[in-house]
Amino acid sequence: MKAFYLESIKQFSKKDISIPSPNAGEVLVKVKNVGICGSDVHYYEYGKIGNFVIEKPLILGHEAAGDVVAVGSEVKNLKVGDRVAMEPGIPCGKCKFCKSGRYNLCPDIKFWATPPVDGTFTEYVTHPADFCFKLPSDVSYEEGAMFEPLAVGLWATEKANLKPENSVAILGVGTIGMMTLKSVLAVGITDVTVFDVSDFKLDMAKQFGAKIVNSKDPSIFKNYSDAFDVVFETAGNSITTSNTVNLVSRGGTIILVGLPSKDENILNTNLLNSKEGVIKTVFRYANMYPRALQLVSSGKIQLKPLITKHFDFDQLPEAFDYIVKNNDKVIKVMMNF
Ligand SMILES: [Zn+2]
Ligand SMILES: [Zn+2]
Asked: What distance in Å separates the CA atoms of residue 197 and residue 250, rounded to the nearest whole number?
């Protein structure tokens, strides 16, 4: 089968490797769609994310859906022919975090496309059956592939304990910001303001029901001091991150979803303290795929408008190049297999 390896910065190679076989608890899945994630693009451009460094060629991709084509001897929940979305992190199942349900914090988790674990830009993958979610006929493969970023938005929303009357800000509407917006709207919040520097992205957020502010000139944030009960930061940008404390109301909550690339203290903790503000952080998600499945299948959340471009699997290098060059008008780029 074909697989694309990231060899070094901006350098892919296409290789022929053997099709893996599933062990007892696993299924073999023929991949149908994979979304390109911001993290994939970051590895492509910089060869690392924080402490995760690509030291040997790595298969990227972790937002995947496909067809079950073989099942291991102990698999009971799936059969050949089932269409599935695959949750990309495989926790150990034994540590205290796993046992308490916080398996996203498992120190031994194996997460696709996080060095040294290969991902899904390949024709077949094996995966534990209990991290595969059967798609009903009304959910497409590409929607199933997008459960992954949706799970992040749902988890951020879960952390916020929102009440219907809350005013909400979302800083940044790339894929994760859009998924947060959709998750927040799905729990009945009506007062949502999004900030971004791309008019393309802001226009899309407006169509989904958000109020929009172009924050190209960051001094605009001054007009929104103390304005929001809950502030989600999804841009991973030091300007927006530092502005969360200004924007949040007294007693309000900040949810940090994005990761600023520089690890510096950019939060005004004195101001935060005077507001008795709460900061929560989000690292991936836990137990959100069933929720994603329900919300998408019921039509409460529509994901297809977020796909701004498709590429065929063979065009993977072109797809990454396209994203880097068109960042201000890309939400989700979807690979077709
Ligand atoms: Zn992702
Ligand atoms: Zn564990």
From this structure: 26
